[in-house]
Write a structure and sequence with these properties.
The complex is a heterodimer of chains A (540) and B (204). Chain A has a 5-stranded antiparallel sheet with strand order 2-1-5-4-3, with helices on one face. A 5-stranded mixed sheet of chain A has the order 7-9-10-12-11. Chain A has a two-stranded antiparallel sheet with strand order 6-8. Chain A has 9 helices and 12 strands. Chain A starts with a helix and ends with a strand. Chain A is elongated and about 220 Å long. The mean pLDDT of chain A is 87. Helices cover 61% and strands 16% of the residues of chain A. With 204 residues, chain B is of the alpha/beta class. Chain B has one domain: Rossmann fold (3-Layer(aba) Sandwich), CATH 3.40.50. Helix content of chain B is 37%, strand content 22%. Chain B is built from 7 helices and 10 strands. Chain B has an 8-stranded mixed sheet with strand order 3-4-2-5-6-7-8-10, with helices on both faces. Chain B has a two-stranded antiparallel ribbon with strand order 1-9. In chain B, helix 1 packs antiparallel against helix 2. Classes of the chains: A alpha+beta (540), B alpha/beta (204). Chains A and B meet through helix 2 of A and helix 3 and helix 7 of B.
């Protein structure tokens, strides 16, 4: 319905609106009036019948009292003037039928005497029942029955009447509405025509003629204004378009020029690119060659490394053999040495009276050299043993170890001349007997080379450096020439005369070897007559 | 039922009379009268006297009924009794009486006999007997100045100016009304009474 309505033209919509509203109003009004009318008809009927019954009632008292039925009949007859009444009865005070009236053709024959008093609609009839009384004395009862068909007839009449008015009003409103609708819709139709003309032709110079001064007139003005604005904008747009076209043309020319330039540059560039490409190719070839050379070199290096490893292995084997040889030599040298020592002692003890002073002196020289020889062999043995021995690491308190060694190796008589300073010492994790050997060698060296000083100063210090525990032992002894620092730790290397400072020249070599085997380093600093400092480090 | 100058009554009529008496008793609704009638019927059924008694009983009832539908003027209400006066001589052994429990205009009824019309003042009803036929003009002359209802039961009385006059027709007691006399009196009759009674004009 609404969809259908939305597709209608404005004229039809307005007409439809008027007709619908009018129809609703008319139907509601006629229905309301009809209901009221029906009520009024009923009330009027009741009024008429009741008043008739009252008259009959009043007039029938005396006829009842005097038993005059004829008179009562006459009175009842008078009720026939009310055309709706179809039946009327008078009962006497003993409720016996006294007189009755029946309209011709009426279907009713009797009434219920016990009907309630007053007016009552029952079926198609109105029953009015009333007591006949005079000065509080009861004389009888009257019942009047009226047909309601007259109401129905009146209502039907009313319906036809309403229908004719309805139709008449509808036709009238349709005609007037048509005219009125045109008043509203005609300007709109005109506007629609102009709009469609403009949209078809694109001619924005067209205008609508204003007729009314209402909202549509305003709409016309606004529409014309809008057309003006569109017209102006159109002109502006055209100008702008022309300008743009000119600009495009100039730009196109410029572009063509630039394009030409670019094309010529492009040729040059291509040539340059070709040259560069050739250069690059050359470089690549050269590079490839050098790469090959590099590969060859790496191969050579690998070969050299392998041969070096082979050499190293051979060296290690040779070293081991040398150590075995040194051990066996030292061991084997002991037996003849023990012979020399033994026989020289026998010679001194048993044959001293047979020897002169020179002989005795030579014997003691032999004995001294033999002793030195024994020391030398012992040192060599222990040195060579070092290569074979397994290292067993334990926790060592450095301070107490240094102290006990110092008391072991120093003479009681000289101890007062020695100033021993031991700094803060840590716990170390190393082979206990080997570390003892290291400390004995270094401390006895320090005491030995300082023995010519009146007061010997020994400083033993510790510091942590790059994950290494570094220990230093400083003395104020003879020192050494720093040029020979490298030779200090070689076997049988001595920087001083043996007569000056006795020794085998193996001690420091042993120290170096032990420290190496612990993964550490040994080095020394010193100057002649200004003392020396020996360092050794152990990894944490 | 009753015809003047005719004596005796047939058996058939007696039965009709019996029914009539019963209806009458019902109309009056007085047990005593009903019983009285029955006694009369049983003991004196064939007597002319009993018929006459019944006739006057009916006349008494009619007087009572007519009086009910009359508007009585204020002056009559001063008295304690509603007075019915009888002038002249009633037939022998006959009385006009209203049962003591019946009220008219809310008053008890008193029946008295007059010897002279001058005594009628203060009465509501004046019953003129047939014996006063020759004095009628004199009586009416007197009563036209007072509010009294004049009643007779003699043929020609109404025409003479008596307001109500009883007569017998079809064996029933009926009455005639002199309109003129009623309208010129100080009494107001219910209009229906005129329809019930036979209307009569004064003849001079």
């Amino acid at each position: 319905m609404i969809k259908l309505y939305s597709n209608l033209s404005i004229v039809s919509k307005t007409r439809f609106l008027i007709i619908t509203i009018l129809g609703i109003i008319l139907i509601i009004s006629f229905t309301t009036i009809g209901i009221l009318q029906y009520k009024i008809f009923k009330e009027r009927l009741i009024e008429r019948v009741v008043s008739a019954a009252e008259i009959v009632e009043l007039n029938s008292i005396i006829p009842i009292e005097f038993g005059n039925k004829n008179e009562a009949q006459k009175i009842l007859q008078s009720i026939s003037t009310i055309k709706e009444v179809v039946y009327a009865v008078i009962y006497d005070k003993n409720n016996n039928l006294f007189s009755y009236f029946k309209r011709e053709g009426a279907l009713i024959d009797s009434v219920d005497i016990d009907l309630p008093l007053g007016a009552l609609f029952r079926g198609n009839n109105l029953n009015v029942s009333s007591l006949i009384k005079y000065e509080n004395e009861y004389y009888g009862k009257i019942v009047v029955v009226a047909s309601t068909s007259s109401i129905n007839e009146s209502m039907l009449e009313y319906f036809y009447y309403s229908l004719s008015i309805f139709v008449f009003v509808y036709i009238l409103s349709f005609l007037i509405g048509h005219r009125l609708t045109l008043l509203i819709t005609a300007p709109l139709t005109e506007l629609a025509k102009v709009v469609s003309k403009i949209s078809n032709s694109g001619n924005y110079a067209l205008r609508v003629k204003k007729v009314y001064n209402d909202e549509i007139g305003e709409l016309y003005d606004n529409f014309n204004n809008m057309l003006n604005q569109i017209h102006i904008r159109d002109n502006k747009l055209n100008d702008f378009n022309l300008e743009l076209e000119n600009q495009v043309l100039t730009r196109t020319k410029e572009l063509i020029e630039v394009n030409n330039i670019l094309e010529s540059t492009k040729g040059e560039l291509e040539i340059k690119v070709l040259e560069r490409t050739a250069d690059l190719n050359n470089s690549i070839q050269k590079l490839e060659k050098s790469q090959k050379a590099m590969l060859l070199m790496v191969e050579d290096l690998n070969r050299t490394t392998k041969s070096l490893e082979l050499g190293k292995n051979k060296l290690n084997e040779a070293n081991k053999e040398l150590e075995a040889f040194a051990y066996s030599v030292s061991h084997d040298l002991r037996a003849p040495l023990r012979g020399i020592l033994g026989f020289t002692q026998i010679l001194i003890e048993d044959h001293k009276d047979k020897l002169d002073e020179e002989g005795k002196r030579i014997c003691s020289v032999i004995l001294g050299n033999t002793e030195r020889m024994g020391h030398l062999i012992d040192d060599l043995l222990s040195f060579s043993r070092l290569g074979r021995r397994e290292i067993e690491k334990t926790e060592i308190d450095m301070k107490s170890m240094i102290r006990s060694i110092f008391y072991e190796i120093s003479d009681e008589g000289n101890r007062n001349n020695i100033e021993l300073n031991i700094g803060e010492m840590p716990q170390i994790f190393a082979d206990s007997s080997l570390m003892k050997q290291v400390l004995i060698n270094l401390l006895s060296n320090a005491l030995k080379f300082s023995s010519k000083k009146e007061i010997i100063k020994l400083n033993i210090k510790y510091k942590l450096e790059d994950n290494f525990q570094v220990f230093s032992i400083q003395d104020n002894g003879a020192g050494f020439n720093s040029k020979y620092t490298d030779k200090l730790f070689g076997v049988f290397q001595r920087l001083h005369n043996e007569s000056e400072f006795p020794g085998t020249g193996v001690g420091l070599a042993i120290v170096q070897r032990i420290i190496f085997r612990h993964g550490g380093k040994v080095w020394a600093e010193g100057e002649i007559d200004k003392g020396a400092t020996f360092y050794f480090s152990l990894p944490i | 039922m009753i015809f003047r100058g005719r004596e005796g009554i047939s058996l058939q009529r007696l039965v009709i009379h019996f029914k009539w008496y019963l209806n009458l008793a019902k109309l009056f609704s007085i047990k005593s009268i009903y019983i009285l009638f029955s006694l009369i019927l049983l003991s004196e059924s064939s007597s002319a006297q009993s018929v006459r008694k019944a006739e006057y009983l009916l006349k008494s009832i009619n007087i009572y009924k007519i009086c009910k539908f009359i508007e009585w003027p204020e002056s009559n209400k001063e008295s304690d009794y509603f007075v019915i006066s009888i002038i002249g001589d009633l037939p022998e052994g006959i009385k006009i009486e209203i049962p003591p429990d019946k009220l008219i205009a809310k008053k008890r009824v008193l029946v008295k006999h007059l010897t002279h019309v001058n005594q009628a003042e203060g009465s509501n009803v004046l019953f003129i007997c047939e014996s006063e036929k020759n004095n009628i003009k004199k009586i009416l002359n007197f009563t036209k100045n007072i509010a009294v209802l004049t009643i007779g039961d003699t043929n020609g009385f109404a025409e003479m100016g008596v307001m109500i006059n009883f007569y017998i027709k079809d064996e029933l007691v009926n009455f005639e009304i002199n309109d003129q006399a009623v309208l010129s009196s100080k009494l107001e009759f219910q209009s229906q009474l005129f329809k019930i009674g036979r209307r009569v004009q004064t003849i001079n």
